[in-house]
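subagent[fold] <- orchestrator: predict structure for attached chain, return tokens only, no commentary.
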Amino acid sequence: MTGPRRYLVILNEEEQYTLWPEDGTVPQGWQPTGFAGTQDECLAHVDEVWTDMRPRSLRLHVDEQVR
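subagent[fold] -> orchestrator:
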């Protein structure tokens, strides 16, 4: 008997998060964040760390406009 499926939390260069099966190959352009767990654990982690849903490039552009 196997336990619940495990996932990695991965991040792209735009600092967008997603879950990926732990036993899968991480897609090009994405890298593991170091967090792994069940789907619920990973989603809770993403909710905690991904506080600004805008892509990194948009955040930087807006920050430049404000200065």
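orchestrator: received. Logging for downstream: The beta strands are 6-12, 17-21, 30-38. Residues 6-66 form a domain with the Rubredoxin-like fold (CATH 3.90.820.10).
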